[in-house]
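Appendix C: a fully annotated inverse folding record. The material below is reproduced so that readers can follow the format used throughout the book. The structure is listed first as tokens, followed by the designed sequence.
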């Protein structure tokens, strides 16, 4: 995981997706108690206000109490279950 996040990905053109990518990397690295690359905490990877990525049209409004800290800190409202492997 550390090697996969070592180099900063190019901007996607969407601040919400750039913040979400940093949140995913930060979330899994924190769970593994692994070091994080600087880009993960770059101010450009944080949203000014809470947003939901709306993965599909029928998505319900996320419950902020069920959003992992790495996402909540970046104002990316993505619930914990969305990250679960099935």
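Designed amino acids, in order:
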């Amino acid at each position: 995981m550390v090697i996969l996040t070592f180099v900063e990905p190019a901007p996607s053109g969407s601040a919400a997706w750039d913040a979400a990518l940093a949140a995913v990397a930060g979330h899994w690295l924190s769970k593994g108690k692994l070091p994080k690359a600087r880009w993960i905490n770059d101010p450009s990877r944080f949203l000014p206000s809470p947003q939901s990525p709306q993965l599909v049209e029928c998505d319900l409004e996320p419950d902020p109490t069920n959003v992992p800290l790495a996402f909540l800190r970046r104002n990316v409202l993505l619930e914990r279950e969305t990250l679960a492997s099935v």
